[in-house]
Amino acid sequence: MRTSKIERKTKETQISLSLNVDGNGQASIETGIGFFDHMLTLLSFHSGMDLDVQAHGDLEVCDHHTVEDCGIALGNALKQALGDKKGIQRYGFFQLPMDETLCSVTLDISGRPYLVFHAEFKRENIGNFSTEMVEEFLRAVVVQAGITLHVNILYGSNDHHQIEAIFKALGRALKQAVTITSDQIPSSKGWIEV
After folding, report:
1. pLDDT tens, position by position, for the chain (194 residues)?
2. What ranges make up the beta strands (E) of 58-123?
3. What is the DSSP letter of 183?
């Protein structure tokens, strides 16, 4: 089983995160940020990965530290659970419609972290979640996990729909990329940076 558990404690946050890549999409999420909990639950469901996140952060300051540190923990958990990446499909792509929104997510579990993010939001917050934290969360995940990730909102007008489409499409693209399709390292070099 491809599983991992991360404990992250700083002066700003305390996070306990467990991940089962080969799960059933079951989630138990408590970050103190309702909309973020919803997005992580959707990510878990659409990726098919079991995800448990218990986070306590300095929300009296703002949501930044909690969201970013959850991204760091999730990226580390993905990297740890996938190990040498032997047999994975490696690449994932999903284009997801949500009402008026169309979102494209393309990724490569390459060992080379890079984020391209094309989305603009009109609202500053959805509940107590800052919309600018979508990009920060994704950057934290890809840097720690070693993923190249391209996120493009092709069109849309409702910020809730756009962000939800991003998390759902990311889940679907990850599900494709982590699927075992062979017994080989998916690189002509014979290895992927770990």
Report:
1. 899 999 999 999 999 999 999 999 999 999 999 999 999 999 999 999 999 999 999 999 999 999 999 999 999 999 999 999 989 999 999 999 999 999 999 999 999 999 999 999 999 999 999 999 999 999 999 999 999 999 999 999 999 999 999 999 999 999 999 999 987 765 556 656 65
2. 91-98, 101-108, 114-118
3. S
The ranges assigned to domains in the chain are 3-178
**Residue 45, class by beta-carbon neighbours within 10 Å (0-12 exposed, 13-18 middle, 19+ buried)?**
middle
User: For residue 27, is it left (φ>0), alpha (ψ between -120 and 50) or beta?
Assistant: beta
Q: State the pTM of this model.
A: 0.95
Domain over 3-178 is classified CATH 3.40.640.10: no
Cα 177 to chain centroid, rounded: 13
